[in-house]
Amino acid sequence: MSNDAAVERFRVLLRIPTVSLADVGSTNWAAFEAFRDAVAEAYPTVHASVERELVAGHTMLWRWPGVDPALPPVILMAHQDVVAPGRLEDWRHPAFDAELVDHDGDRIIWGRGTIDDKGSLVAILEAADHLAADGFRPTRDVWFVFGHDEETNGTGAAAAAALLAERGVRPELVLDEGGAIVGGFLPGVDARLAAIGITEKGVANFRLSVTTQGGHSSAPPANSAILRLSTAIARIDRGPFPARLTAATRGMFRAAGRGGRGLLPWLYRGVAWSGPLLVRALQSKPEGAAMTRTTVVATQISGGHALNAVPERAEAVMNARVLAGETLAGTLERLRAATGDRGVDVELISGWEPAPISPTDGPGWERLVATIADIFPDVVPAPYGQTGATDSRSFTSLTEAVYRFTPFDLSEAERAALHAVDERIRVDSWLAGIAFYRAFLAKL
After folding, report:
1. Strand partners, 403
2. Among this protein's residues, is 237 annotated catalytic?
3. Which of 414, 402, 306, 299 is nearest to 355 (CA)?
4. pLDDT value of residue 216
5. What CA–CA distance (Å, rounded) separates 354 from 65?
6. Sites in the chain below the pLDDT cut of 50
7. Which of 352, 371, 394 finishes a domain?
8. The pLDDT value given to residue 371
9. Domain boundary among 310, 331, 352
10. Are residues 194 and 216 in the same domain?
11. Is residue 176 among the annotated active site residues?
12. Which domain holds residue 227?
């Protein structure tokens, strides 16, 4: 495999702006058609080796037939769509130019989707195409699910999961995007961790609304709709949900404790009794705090129709990420109580429950961990509870072995750029991801 040629194929696909929007009618579906055409041109061997169909209009569902279809298949997932780039002028390099930049001895590909999630999708295609060109055929069926609206509604993956369920497909494991290879996440741990999501938080959107007396701004009412709404949001923010360790986070600590020596790794290994201390320690960083509690944050707010008028109505949307073991209904009740104002209406407008916790044993887990050991021998596999949502949630009814792992070594700065300006990935990290997928597929 030519690394330079692989990078160029990646850059071609990154330049296609497959942005999914919550307003389906405003999405540029021609970009998704162009993306599919570009995939077929870039990866002709695997394209010809698989059975292909479109689900929900744009999700790519491929089956690579195995030698023994009686064996339980494996499902590899990634998504075509990306989030909107935000203000283009804020990017140091254009969001959809896929510029290749040399910086401090690293080659870096800059652009929306480099990590989330075309990085994984294209790495999977690179691995599969080269294996197919070598005459490889998997022992078992391999399904590829490349969703088209993971960043918005996830309807494509849900439709693919429903279709596979109808066909009686019961996979050995499902592998989707998720945790990465990280260093320095937990103090005292020398080894890098391969963070494998064995569950993910639920997602819910709540609408807060206030309807009250309006009027002229020259003689405003004592408690306007905007003021009452803002006060309710501030009260919610000042009363965070209780922090606790889930089974997934406890597993992460136990695994991390094996990657170092000294007091802190000892505390990690003893999570059964040191849990309260570790919960407090995780609060120091947003990533850590989010692993221990349901989080709620205001993401949209509106109200007012004129510069000199006090509006009768104001409303906001709050996005919640619901910790495993909790529910959307319980989150709703807590928010209603937290506002401290019966005049603030709180309603659930969309969402889904947290995913079940997948096992850290069995053939699916062992296959994944063995591949990590082959490609990243100095890395410690560690289960954890993923804070972000993935398309894999739709597949938990097909198998309990659903894992969320992105095989890229990502710095803190690279992780911070997800869904933000200046998303990028180091070339060496991306190429190692191709090696991971190739080794993973070669074991099938």
Report:
1. 175
2. no
3. 402
4. 87
5. 32
6. none
7. 352
8. 98
9. 352
10. no
11. no
12. 201-352
